[in-house]
From TrEMBL:
<keyword id="KW-0560">Oxidoreductase</keyword>
<comment type="similarity">
    <text>Belongs to the WrbA family.</text>
</comment>
<dbReference type="InterPro" id="IPR029039">
    <property type="entry name" value="Flavoprotein-like_sf"/>
</dbReference>
<dbReference type="GO" id="GO:0003955">
    <property type="term" value="F:NAD(P)H dehydrogenase (quinone) activity"/>
</dbReference>
<feature type="domain" description="Flavodoxin-like">
    <location>
        <begin position="24"/>
        <end position="210"/>
    </location>
</feature>
<protein>
    <submittedName>
        <fullName>NAD(P)H:quinone oxidoreductase</fullName>
        <ecNumber>1.6.5.2</ecNumber>
    </submittedName>
</protein>
<dbReference type="InterPro" id="IPR010089">
    <property type="entry name" value="Flavoprotein_WrbA-like"/>
</dbReference>
<dbReference type="Pfam" id="PF03358">
    <property type="entry name" value="FMN_red"/>
</dbReference>
<dbReference type="InterPro" id="IPR008254">
    <property type="entry name" value="Flavodoxin/NO_synth"/>
</dbReference>
<dbReference type="InterPro" id="IPR005025">
    <property type="entry name" value="FMN_Rdtase-like_dom"/>
</dbReference>
Length: 221
């Protein structure tokens, strides 16, 4: 048996079973559409694993005048106007949560941080304990703070008492997507297009998150 077979097993899908009762919230912030697309791929992967999925955006904080001055941003806001904004009830509903955000100076965007700062009531009442979480990100260059942005999200999750389900190197698709073990990350060129092919890695990460959530949920029954 070769190294990769030992590391990943003979079948990359062998651990994925139908998980019809796992509820996943995919929560994102996106200006140009990259993290929205990552979220949609995560939705596809999770549904393939049998999960019930809600794709939700965090509220926008930027003034409308600023958005109007950026054609790409304006077009994306219009294209996703029907995507529901996340509510605290969605966090309580979910067994698992995947976050997807662009990096801002090696940190999460203010829009995501503002939403997380509203979760104090749920945290205080123990409603976020044992939520299974994972995160994805994007930046305009491969060393633009992608890993640190994901870790900044996980820091908040540790305070929740959540369980982080990072992809690690649990499937060869991680290497093809750039090899980030903390969560899928992608580089976006000046043309707004993704440079790495990360679709398979995102779907694997979503399936892994749902799988771990199923384990946790069964253990707590």
């Amino acid at each position: 048996m070769g190294f990769l077979s030992k590391l990943f097993g003979t079948s990359t899908e062998k651990e994925i079973e139908t998980m019809s009762y796992v509820k996943l919230a995919v929560i994102y912030y996106s200006m140009g559409g990259t993290n929205y697309q990552l979220s949609k791929w995560a939705e596809e992967g999770a549904k393939e694993a049998g999960a019930e999925v809600r794709v939700l955006k965090v509220p926008e904080l930027a003034p409308q005048s600023v958005i109007e001055g950026n054609p790409v941003w304006k077009a994306h806001v219009e294209a996703t106007k029907d995507v529901p904004e996340v509510k605290l009830d969605d966090l309580e509903w979910a067994d698992a949560i995947i976050f997807s955000v662009p990096t801002r100076f090696g940190n999460m965007p203010a829009q995501m941080k503002q939403f997380l700062d509203t979760t104090g009531g749920l945290w205080f009442n123990g409603k976020l304990v044992n939520k299974v979480v994972s995160a994805m990100t994007s930046a305009q260059n491969p060393h633009g703070g992608q890993e640190q942005t994901i870790l900044s999200l996980y820091t908040s999750m540790y305070h929740w008492g959540a369980i982080v389900a990072a992809p690690g190197y649990t499937d060869p698709v991680t290497f093809g997507a750039g090899g980030n073990p903390y969560g899928t990350s992608v580089t976006v060129g000046q043309d707004g297009k993704m440079i790495e092919d990360v679709q398979a890695a995102v779907k694997h990460q979503a399936k892994r998150t749902v799988t771990v959530a199923e384990w946790v949920k069964k253990a707590n029954q």
